[in-house]
Design a protein that fits this description.
The chain is built from 3 helices and 2 strands, in the order αββαα. It is α+β, with helices and mostly antiparallel strands and 85 residues long. The longest helix is centred in the C-terminal third of the chain and has 15 residues.
Amino acid sequence: MHLQKAPNPACIRQVGSVAFSSVPAALRKKHGIKEGTRIVISDNGDSIVLKSITEHYLKKLQGSLKGRGLMKSLMADRKWERNEA
């Protein structure tokens, strides 16, 4: 009988007083996160998702907005960012 390797267990971290938490080194290495890497934080209703903006991530996005009114999208994003600040 061959036992399968269990998936990685959840990593539990405590959020500090300034809402700071760290990403474990193994996950940073796996996803190419280095000091200064930007992170997209999304609310998925019942969970929070972190996505690192790496060169690989940007290459995957190439062409994904073709024909979707990119200028309107950029202007809407900038307006939203000004209102959030």
